[in-house]
Specification:
7-stranded parallel sheet; single chain; about 230 residues; alpha/beta; Alpha/beta knot; elongated; 10 helices
Length: about 230
């Protein structure tokens, strides 16, 4: 048996049956086919709301680029999403935007910047056949010129009023709702593999058990000794 499957089986002896069923159900609906990148968001509550939205739509990873503003999860807004969604920060290097986008492209993502004044695609006709990272900019200035130059394309949400743009968390919700709905109706293989789901469930188990990571290490060591 695969070592990760054995580790998960050990955790299943500890956590409740309800948690086992919940983790299995939600992991089976998770995807990395879509991800979200927040560029230099000013307000933590908006970024936390986007994190919560990612969880609600089964988006497993969210990226933040912190050039001038650091991001701290607002737990009352995120509603625990920080425990279930992988948050990947780019903040310490000189050019965090480029490092983030380079890493995403190396993972096979197409970079799509959300810009209300660009006309590549409306959200409802944005192609979804490739892995896609949606970049959302600041509340005031939108996506930066540097980010636009690195983007592979642009997307906008159709609007019919005087206001030029939606709040960043609303934009994320509208875009992800449309793209996830279309993915669900497609024939694309966009969900996590079985192996990825198992690793994810192990990670979730460690987060609901005191010293969960330490316990995981103990379990792995014991299983490796047993199997050697």
């Amino acid at each position: 048996m695969n070592i990760d499957r054995q580790v998960l089986a050990e955790f299943h002896n500890i956590i409740s049956e309800n948690k086992i069923e919940l983790f299995e159900k939600i992991a089976s609906q998770r995807t990395k086919h879509l991800t979200v990148v927040l560029e230099n968001i000013h307000h933590d509550h908006n970024a936390s709301a986007v994190l919560r939205t990612c969880d609600c739509f089964g988006i497993q990873e969210m990226y933040t680029i912190e050039k001038n503003h650091s991001y701290k999860i607002q737990r009352d807004i995120a509603r625990g999403a920080g425990s279930w969604v992988d948050l990947i920060n780019y903040t310490l290097k000189d050019n965090p935007e480029k490092h983030c986008i380079d890493d995403l492209k190396a993972k096979g993502y197409k970079i799509i910047a959300a810009c209300p004044h660009e006309s590549d695609h409306d959200v409802n006709d944005l192609p979804i056949d490739e892995k896609t990272a949606i970049v959302l900019g600041t509340e005031w200035d939108g996506v930066s010129d540097e980010m636009k130059a690195m983007a592979d394309g642009f997307v906008k949400i159709p609007m019919y009023g005087f206001t030029e743009s939606f709040n960043v968390s609303v934009s994320a919700a509208l875009i992800l709702q449309d793209l996830r709905t279309r993915l669900n109706k497609s024939n694309l293989d966009f969900l996590l593999s079985n192996e990825e789901q198992i690793k994810l469930q192990i990670d979730w188990c460690t987060k609901i058990i005191r010293n969960g990571k330490g316990l995981e290490q103990e379990i792995r060591k014991r299983l490796l000794d047993k199997n050697s």
